[in-house]
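Figure 6 in text form: structure in, sequence out.
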């Protein structure tokens, strides 16, 4: 409390002192009167304007060159590729795919027919095909022992590994049974009945093989393949033949357009009858193909070797699209060694004598032509000049060797062959197909008078029509060939009758999986002799059932 009182007295004294000083200051101020005579007016003098002309500064001609270095940097962007979907797309209707089919039946004269196959596949894993084919006929009632039989059983399969390669394997058994019924035209056997077993020939062949190949594109754009094929052929008269082929090679693609091919092939053949024969060939085949927008050029060489002799053949071709797909012209040259073996002879002429001399045909060919596709029409034309050393020709063997079995011997000759051929295909309306192929060969032989049993002219015309989609089909064909030249028993040149064969057929599916078929062949009952004293069957009919599943 005492402190509060002291503070109050102090504040009062200070306030009183200040009031007294203010009163004294007011008493000292002057008290005179001030009279204002005139208000003050400020006036500025007129200013004189100074004209100033602007000038540009002198240009700076000095150039400063800057050096900038921007280090490149790749930015990786990870994003899923876009999926472009059409607003609307209408595709062609795909025909149903069936894994298996069976076609079996019989006919006249005494014919049996069966054709079956089954295919199964697991995508990117494996696939296989099994097949069976049999065809036989017997016309012995009209011409003794005019009969034949053919059989083939086989399978083929592929297996694909995750590492990007695949393997293939195939196995087959073929049996061809012809009969030497040519004795019917020999007066010596006019009143003689011959057992079928006495004139039967039977070729049995087992073939097998396999390959290793890339099943997907490789990192270096190289397609490779290593393969092997083996066969063993025997007949009823002691002949045996073995063939073995081993090949390896591949294709290197450049810019996904151009290609370089390189193949190495070894081909061995061993033949045995009363003596042994060998025919071994080796091939080295490099080639480069250049593809342009409207052209294709291939340049290569085929190097062949046989008995330490080397042969060099061109492997070249050029193609130019004059009018795109409508018209293209091409020209090229090729050649090689072509084996003549018991296998090739018995396939072409089943009445061949199995006592053979195996040779290579040395072939060099030059060719040129045109091809194109115009709307509903496809066409091609080709002319070639071929020089052949050891061209096989076929003549009846000496009657004294085996008068009952009328067989043929091989005569080799050097020849040039000019071949003119053309083909036309048309698809005028849906389901209708027309195809025509014709060819003319002009032979020039060094020694022989005629090209014995080789055709000079042939024509094939086929028409097929799908009457009801996937249900009813009809077809017709015309086959023509010139009369072939041969020699008769006295050695006289003889021209055989030509071929004129008209055939028709059809197939109708009663249900999705079951159908019937009928084929009528050789309506003109043409009995031409493809081989001297071996006329064809003439008119024959085949019918049966069809299954698909």
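Output sequence:
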């Amino acid at each position: 409390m005492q402190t509060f009182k002291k503070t109050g007295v102090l504040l009062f004294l200070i306030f009183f002192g200040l009031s007294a000083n203010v009163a004294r200051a007011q008493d000292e101020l002057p008290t005179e009167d001030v009279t204002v005579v005139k208000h003050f007016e400020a006036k500025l003098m007129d200013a004189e304007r100074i004209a100033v002309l602007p000038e540009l500064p002198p240009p700076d001609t000095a150039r400063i060159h800057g050096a900038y270095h921007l280090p490149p940097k790749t930015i990786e962007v990870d994003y899923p590729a876009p999926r472009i979907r059409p607003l609307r797309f209408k595709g062609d209707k795909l025909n149903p795919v069936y894994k298996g089919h069976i076609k079996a039946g019989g006919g006249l004269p005494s014919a049996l027919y069966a054709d079956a196959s089954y295919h199964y596949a697991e995508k990117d894993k494996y696939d296989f095909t099994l097949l069976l084919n049999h065809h036989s006929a017997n016309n012995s009632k009209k011409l003794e022992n005019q009969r034949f039989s053919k059989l083939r059983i086989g399978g083929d399969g592929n297996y694909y590994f995750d590492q990007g390669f695949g393997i293939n394997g195939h196995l087959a058994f073929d049996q061809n049974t012809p009969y030497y019924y040519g004795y019917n035209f020999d007066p010596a056997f006019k009143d003689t009945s011959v057992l079928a077993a006495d004139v039967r020939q039977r070729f049995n062949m087992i073939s097998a093989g396999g390959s290793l190949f890339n099943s997907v594109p490789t990192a270096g754009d190289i397609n490779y393949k290593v393969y092997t094929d083996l066969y063993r052929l025997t007949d009823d008269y002691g002949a045996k033949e073995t063939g073995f082929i081993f090949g390896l090679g591949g294709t290197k693609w450049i810019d996904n357009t151009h290609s370089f091919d390189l193949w190495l092939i070894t081909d061995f053949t061993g033949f045995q009858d009363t003596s042994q024969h060998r025919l071994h060939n080796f091939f080295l085949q490099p080639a480069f193909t250049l593809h342009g927008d409207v052209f294709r050029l291939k340049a290569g060489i085929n190097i062949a070797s046989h008995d330490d002799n080397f042969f060099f053949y061109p492997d070249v071709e050029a193609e130019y699209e004059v009018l795109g797909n409508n018209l293209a012209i091409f020209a090229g040259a090729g050649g090689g060694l072509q084996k003549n073996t018991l296998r090739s002879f018995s396939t072409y002429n089943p009445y061949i004598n199995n006592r053979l001399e195996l040779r290579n045909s040395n072939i060099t060919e030059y060719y040129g032509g045109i091809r194109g596709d115009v709307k509903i029409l496809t066409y091609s034309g080709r002319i070639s000049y071929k020089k052949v050393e050891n061209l096989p020709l076929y003549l009846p063997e000496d009657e004294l060797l085996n008068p009952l079995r009328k067989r043929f011997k091989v005569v080799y000759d050097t020849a040039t062959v000019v071949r003119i051929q053309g083909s036309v295909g048309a698809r005028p309306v849906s389901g209708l197909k027309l195809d025509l192929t014709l060819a003319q060969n002009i032979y020039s032989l060094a020694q022989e008078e005629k090209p014995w049993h080789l055709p000079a002219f042939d024509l094939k015309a086929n028409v097929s029509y799908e009457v009801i989609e996937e249900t009813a089909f009809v077809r017709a064909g015309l086959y023509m060939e010139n009369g072939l030249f041969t020699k008769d028993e006295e050695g006289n040149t003889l021209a055989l009758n030509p071929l004129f064969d008209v055939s028709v057929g059809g197939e109708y599916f009663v249900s999705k999986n079951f159908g019937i078929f009928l084929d009528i062949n050789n309506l003109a009952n043409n009995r031409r002799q493809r081989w001297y004293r071996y006329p064809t069957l003439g008119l024959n009919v085949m019918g049966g059932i069809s299954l698909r599943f």
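Caption detail: The radius of gyration is 49 Å.
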